[in-house]
Amino acid sequence: MRQLLVLLMLATPAAAQTAEEAAATAVVLPMIQQVVAGPDAALVTGCVVAAATPEERARLAAAPGPSAEMGAVVNAVLARPETLACIQRAKGA
Question: Which residues does 61 contact at the CB level (< 8 Å), separation at least 6?
């Protein structure tokens, strides 16, 4: 019983992070789809969400939807070398 409790405690932050990532993705994807066509939009979005700082990810997740303010956050994340490297890896380049 004690081991089960420990496992549940360890799993809880991952579940919360997944919900935050999903919420951030819902905000980022429509913005990326405006400039990236097809399935590549999902790849770029995944890299943006993954490369965002915890604070940026929280802001994106809390946003009611795409906006100029969230666009500035996305652009800042897109400008980072690690984001560009993620996109290149995801595309198999």
Answer: 19, 20, 21, 23, 24, 27
